C-alpha cells in the first residue's frame, strides 16, 4: 500500500510530516511499516513522556475499556474521584476540571478567568483583558490564534476574538507596564516550546508571580508541553519555586494513549463556574481517568522526572560539543532541548530528514531550530547512540 500517496490524495494539507510511516512503538523506539527502527526524539511533542505503549498504562486502558468507557457528565463514574485525588495530591491543586485536548484546556482557562474577572474582581462586562506573550503557542482554535503572533496561524482565519494583549516573552517590566484596570490574567508558557525552546531569564517567573499578586491578576501557566517531568521537574514552575493560580496540563497526562487534559486551580477561581456553563461530553470520562491515573503513577514510581533532569543535562552537554559553525545556540532544560542555527543559513528540515534516514526522529520549528525531546525513560547508552548520529549528520 502506498501510504504517502493515499495521504497526499485524500488528506487535508495542514500537516507536513517527515516521510516515515510508523506502525509500532515501544519505549523510546518506533518502527516503520518496512521494519526500520528509529529513536523517537520528539515524543509526540512531549505527549509520550512515559515512552511508547507503557505496559501499565496500556493495561489500565484495556481493563477500563472492557468495563465502561463513557457516561458523559450527566452521570458520575467511579474513576473520576480517583483521578481528582491523584492529580490534586500530586500538584497541590484545590480543584481540577478535566478536558480532552490542550486547546480545550486553554479555552477552559480563558472562559473561567473571564468569569472570575467579572464576578469576583469586578471588571466591567465585556472589558476583560488577558495578557499573553509574543511567539506563544497555546493551540489552534479561533480564540487562541486571535492572540498568536505567528502569521501562518492567523492568515485567512479572521475575524478574531478581542480581549488580549501581547508583550515580549521574558520581560517582567513589560508585563508590569501592560497591566490596566481591565487586566484579569497573564497566560504564559514557562518555556516556549513551539517557538524553539525559548527559556526566559532566571527569576522571570518569580517576578511575574509577584507582579500578578500585586495587581490581583491570575497567573495562568500553560504547562501542557513543559509539565509532567519534561523539564526535570513535575512542573516547570518548580524551577523557580512558585505556584500558578491556574495550571494547564495535557499531552503526557495520558502517556500518549488517549486525549486527556486538565485545568488545575484554586477554589476561588474554579467555583465561579456553575452547572451548564461549561463542559465536555468526553471530559472526565472513565477511560480517560483510568489512563491518566496510571500515567501519573508510573511517572513517579519509575523516577522518570529525576531521569529527565540527569539525562537532559547529559544530552545537552553532548549537543554543545557540536562543531558546526552555523549553530547559533544549544539550549534546554531537562529533556526539552532546542538546537538553533543562524537564521537564513540553514534549513533545519534538511537535517531532520538526514537524521531520519539515520534512525533518529526529530522535528524542525521556525525553519532554523531542531527540537530534541526523547521520552523520559531514555538511558545514557540511548543518548550516546543519538549523539553519535547527530554528530555525524550535523557536526
Automatic annotation (TrEMBL):
It is an enzyme of class 2 (transferase). The keyword Membrane does not apply. Belongs to the class-III pyridoxal-phosphate-dependent aminotransferase family. The keyword Cytoplasm does not apply. GO terms for biological process: L-proline biosynthetic process. Its EC number is 2.6.1.13. Its cofactor is pyridoxal 5'-phosphate. The lineage of its organism: Bacteria, Pseudomonadati, Thermodesulfobacteriota, Desulfobacteria, Desulfobacterales. This is ornithine aminotransferase. Keywords: Aminotransferase, Pyridoxal phosphate, Transferase. GO terms for molecular function: identical protein binding; ornithine aminotransferase activity; pyridoxal phosphate binding. SUPFAM superfamilies: PLP-dependent transferases. Pathway: Amino-acid biosynthesis; L-proline biosynthesis; L-glutamate 5-semialdehyde from L-ornithine: step 1/1. Pfam families: Aminotran_3. It comes from the Bacteria.
Amino acid at each position: 500500500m502506498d501510504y504517502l500517496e493515499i495521504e497526499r490524495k485524500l488528506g487535508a494539507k495542514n500537516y507536513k510530516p517527515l516521510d516515515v510511516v510508523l506502525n509500532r512503538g515501544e519505549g523510546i523506539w518506533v518502527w516503520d511499516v518496512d521494519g526500520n527502527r528509529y529513536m523517537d526524539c520528539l515524543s509526540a511533542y512531549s505527549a509520550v513522556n512515559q515512552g511508547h505503549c507503557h505496559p501499565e498504562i496500556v493495561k489500565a486502558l484495556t481493563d477500563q475499556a472492557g468495563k465502561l468507557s463513557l457516561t458523559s457528565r450527566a452521570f458520575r463514574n467511579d474513576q473520576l474521584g480517583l483521578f481528582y485525588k491523584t492529580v490534586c495530591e500530586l500538584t497541590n491543586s484545590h480543584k481540577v476540571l478535566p478536558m480532552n485536548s490542550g486547546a480545550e484546556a486553554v479555552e477552559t482557562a480563558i472562559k473561567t478567568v473571564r468569569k472570575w474577572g467579572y464576578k469576583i474582581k469586578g471588571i466591567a462586562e465585556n472589558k476583560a483583558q488577558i495578557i499573553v506573550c509574543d511567539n506563544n503557542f497555546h493551540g489552534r482554535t479561533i480564540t487562541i490564534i486571535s492572540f498568536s503572533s505567528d502569521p501562518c496561524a492567523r492568515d485567512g482565519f479572521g475575524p478574531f476574538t478581542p480581549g488580549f494583549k501581547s508583550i515580549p516573552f521574558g520581560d517582567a517590566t513589560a508585563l508590569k507596564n501592560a497591566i490596566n484596570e481591565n487586566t484579569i490574567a497573564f497566560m504564559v508558557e514557562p518555556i516556549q516550546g513551539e517557538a524553539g525552546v525559548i527559556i526566559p531569564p532566571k527569576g522571570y517567573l518569580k517576578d511575574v508571580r509577584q507582579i500578578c499578586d500585586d495587581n490581583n491578576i491570575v497567573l495562568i501557566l500553560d504547562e501542557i508541553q513543559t509539565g509532567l517531568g519534561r523539564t526535570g521537574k513535575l512542573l516547570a514552575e518548580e524551577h523557580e519555586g512558585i505556584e500558578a493560580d491556574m495550571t494547564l496540563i495535557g499531552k503526557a497526562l495520558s502517556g500518549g494513549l488517549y486525549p486527556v487534559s486538565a485545568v488545575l486551580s484554586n477554589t476561588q477561581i474554579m467555583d465561579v463556574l456553575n452547572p451548564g456553563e461549561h463542559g465536555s461530553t468526553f471530559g472526565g470520562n472513565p477511560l480517560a481517568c483510568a489512563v491518566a491515573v496510571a500515567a501519573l503513577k508510573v511517572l513517579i514510581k519509575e523516577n522518570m522526572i529525576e531521569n529527565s533532569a540527569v539525562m537532559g543535562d547529559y544530552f545537552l552537554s553532548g549537543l554543545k560539543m557540536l562543531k558546526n559553525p552555523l549553530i547559533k545556540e544549544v539550549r534546554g532544560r531537562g529533556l526539552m532541548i532546542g538546537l538553533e542555527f543562524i537564521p537564513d543559513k540553514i534549513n533545519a528540515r534538511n537535517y531532520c530528514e538526514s537524521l531520519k534516514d539515520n534512525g533518529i526522529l526529530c522535528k524542525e520549528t521556525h525553519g532554523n531550530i531542531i527540537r530534541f525531546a526523547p521520552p523520559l525513560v531514555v538511558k545514557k547508552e540511548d543518548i550516546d547512540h543519538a549523539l553519535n548520529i547527530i554528530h555525524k549528520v550535523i557536526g
